[in-house]
Amino acid sequence: MTDHSDGAEEPGGAGPHPGEPHHEGLGTRLNWLRAAVLGANDGIVSTAGLVVGVAGATDSRSALLTAGLAGLMAGSLSMAAGEYVSVSTQRDSEQAALALEREELETTPQAELEELTGLLEDRGITHDLAREVAEQLTARDALGAHARVELGIDPDALANPWHAAWASFVSFTVGALLPLLAIVLPPQDWRLAVTVVSVLAALTGCGWISARLGNAPARPAVVRNVAGGAIAMAVTYAVGALLGAAGV
Fold it and tell me: InterPro entries under this entry (predicted)?
């Protein structure tokens, strides 16, 4: 007799494969990841562009610090507010769809059972098996079954606007602190070089981490992050230098 007490799966078994994202919370994790990565990237790139642009026009440390702090606060609050509004709208839409589905289950349960059977058939299940599965799912949790199969919504894991807002606020702030400190702490002759190198290194790391957490290829994410940051800093520095030369 073969001992399977260690929980290992035999080749060809039906169990989950290592490294594949089968966890039920994958959608929630990806939403958090999206908000955090977007916030960090925005914090790094927008603040770097701002302070590098100011550095192109003036050498004043106080001007750089003021501009950087103002950009940090404005950006973090804007990101948080934007995420809150966006996710609140998504949550409202999900709740409205669930309310409609709940009403339909109460008023026309047989029609809803037929609908669920048809949806399962559309996924390649034979009619008889689809009917049996639909009946079992309905008996266990009719709303949950229709929400997941028909609407693509997990009623137990609706998007939380406050979580998204705080994730964006914190990640933007953390990202923005890097170029701000890099531009104000070093000696004047080293400010620009330290900032550019620090920002590009941070964007490289951010792109790699986001790709790894999302089980996506790292190279495209890194290239996008680095290219976007480099272009932003080059453009804003050029604008700042032109304004500084013009005495504005």
Answer: Ccc1_fam
